[in-house]
Design brief:
Layout lengths: L2 H33 L2 H19 L1 E7 L1 E2 L2 E2 L1 H11 L9 E4 L8 E4 L4 E6 L2 E13 L10 E12 L3 H23 L3 E6 L2 E6 L13 H15 L2 H7 L4 E7 L6 H12 L2 E4 L8 H9 L5 E5 L11 H4 L14 H9 L9 E7 L7 H4 L6 E4 L5 H12 L7 H10 L4 H8 L5 H19 L10 H16 L6 E4 L9
Parallel strand pairs: 9-12, 11-14, 11-15, 12-13, 13-14, 15-16
Antiparallel strand pairs: 1-8, 2-3, 4-5, 6-7, 7-8, 9-10
This protein binds adenosine-5'-triphosphate (ATP) and magnesium ion.
Pfam families: AAA, AAA_assoc, AAA_lid_At3g28540
Family: Belongs to the AAA ATPase family. BCS1 subfamily.
Cofactor: Mg(2+)
């Protein structure tokens, strides 16, 4: 055997030995994590990390919970992220629930390892908790000090990739996981302050009875909005979006608001203008709102000072004594300087009578989208019946759909009939009687009206296009049958 072959042979032997040493070391690390006491485990683990790193060409990156006095955001994000990566083979987990949560959180326990693969690269994680007797001289301080860190190992050729794409991915995902975990809140103003309760409205885009295309337009619009931080910055506009929901009572305006909040995971700030002591209060409440939230003013036409200026005088006018909210206060909140406070805000106004609002509120661009919530048409009915009775065909559908073309019934009225019985046949029968009664009362007045939503949706999409071209214009879209105008 010549000297070159000898060198190759000994290199092979060396590699085989190294691989088996490293594999043994990996196995040892797993066993040690499970069975050895804290102190000993930490010592052996860190020596094994070095050994594994040496043979496998790995980096071990330590991500500590605290760096000096500051908490480490990456540690926090990674522990959140890793909760979603726990595999069925993980042995030691911890479970936690506190009074701020409704759900139980399962996470890695001390010493437990897991592997994550991102963009084809393998990352190995281990949680390490180290406790030692405290040297603190302060009275009352804990006798034991605890340090926590995550040890992340990956092949050293992926260092750039880890920093440039894996860590940002973890930070981004953890934000989404936290938002989805969080219990939403409903804030209401009382005596000039916000009080809150948990928001427990179950409406989602899935449960809403609306034209499919309209629903998609709205929820796509929301999705685009939350992803446009840089865009808003670039065009020099506050990062906020306004929706005006209009339509008769019981057509789903409040349900849509709840579905939007549930979709975005935004808290709702439900502003009662009648409970506010003037514009100064209004401003204070606005400045007291958190980011990523929805400001809702329901039945805006019922707040006397924001009605049509032809009826109520100038937009800067105040009530005697100057204690009422004025239209100018509302406009300032929607798109004036006050509105630029905070970011990622949605503003929703609702009204039963859009024509009663001051034109200043309706001006193109003031509310970005005008959404008409209409009476229940055949499509809305099919959605409701599938929600309430899980059926999508029934011999009574034909008569009901015919009646709905003639009669103005709100989704709330239809829902009320459908919920009367667990039996689909009985509920549908009851709905038919209700609609026939309505037709009798309505008589000639409502005869011959069909579903009018399609044109409305087309208009809405048309306006959206203009909006995307950064022109200031509001778009109107419609969600059902239009109201027959009544004098
Ligand atoms: N489009 C809809 N889809 C599903 N359910 C609806 C819809 N509209 C109304 N409902 C049902 O009717 C109930 C009342 O509707 P909601 O409060 O959303 O109407 P609204 O338009 O806000 O009425 P108001 O103008 O009186 O405030 C809801 O809780 C829901 O059960
Ligand atoms: Mg409502």
């Amino acid at each position: 055997m010549d000297s070159q072959s000898q060198a190759i042979e000994s290199a092979k032997k060396y590699l085989a030995a190294a691989t088996s040493v490293a594999a043994t070391a990996m196995l040892a690390r797993t066993i040690i994590s499970a069975y050895f006491p804290d102190e000993l485990r930490r010592l052996i683990s860190s020596s094994l990390d070095k050994l594994i790193g040496h043979f496998y060409g790995e980096h071990v990156v330590v991500i500590r919970q605290n760096e000096g006095l500051l908490t480490n955001d990456l540690y926090d994000a990674a522990t959140t992220y890793l909760r979603t990566k726990i595999s069925p083979t993980s042995k030691r987990l911890r479970a936690n629930k506190n009074r701020h949560r409704t759900n139980i959180i399962i996470s890695l326990d001390d010493g437990e390892c897991l592997t994550d693969i991102f963009e084809g690269v393998q990352y190995k994680w281990q949680l390490v908790i180290h406790r030692e007797r405290s040297n603190s001289l302060y009275a009352g301080s804990s006798p034991v000090e605890e340090a926590r860190w995550l040890a992340l190992s990956f092949h050293r050729k992926y260092r750039e990739v880890a920093v440039a794409s894996y860590f940002p991915h973890i930070l981004e995902r953890s934000k989404e996981i936290k938002a989805a975990d969080r219990q939403l809140k409903l804030y209401m103003n009382e005596l000039g302050n916000w009080n809150c309760v948990h928001l427990q409205h179950p409406a989602t885009s899935e449960t809403l009875a609306m034209e499919v295309e309209l629903k998609k337009t709205i929820f796509d619009d929301l999705a685009r909005f939350v992803n446009r931080k840089e865009y808003y910055k670039r065009i020099g506009k506050a990062w906020k979006r306004g929706y005006l929901l209009f339509g008769p009572p019981g057509t789903g305006k409040s349900s849509l608001i709840a579905a939007m909040a549930n979709y975005l995971r935004f808290d709702i700030y439900d502003l009662d203008l009648n409970g506010i002591n003037g514009n100064t209060d209004l401003k204070r409440l606005l400045f007291g709102m958190a980011n990523k939230s929805m400001l809702v003013i329901e039945d805006i036409d019922c707040s006397i000072n924001v009605q049509n200026r032809d009826d109520e005088g100038s937009e800067t006018e105040t009530e005697p004594g100057g204690k009422a909210v004025t239209l100018s206060g509302i406009l300032n909140l929607i798109d004036g300087l006050w509105s630029a406070n905070g970011e990622e805000r949605i503003i929703v106004l609702t009204t039963n009578y859009r024509d009663r609002l001051d034109p200043a509120l309706l001006r193109p661009g003031r509310m970005d989208m005008h959404i008409h919530m209409g009476y229940c048409g055949p499509n809305g009915f099919r959605k409701l019946v599938s929600n309430y009775h899980a059926i999508d065909e029934h011999p009574l559908f034909e008569e009901i759909e015919g009646l709905l073309k003639e009669v103005e019934a709100t989704p709330a009225e239809v829902a009320e009939e459908l919920i009367r019985s667990d039996g689909a046949g009985i509920a549908l029968g009851s709905l038919i009687l209700f609609l026939r009664d309505k037709r009798k009362v309505g008589g000639e007045e409502v005869k011959g009206r069909g579903e009018e939503s399609h044109d409305g949706i087309q208009n809405g999409l048309e306006c959206e296009k203009i909006d995307r071209e950064e022109k200031k214009v509001g778009s109107e879209i419609t969600g059902g049958r239009k109201r027959k105008s009544r004098k």
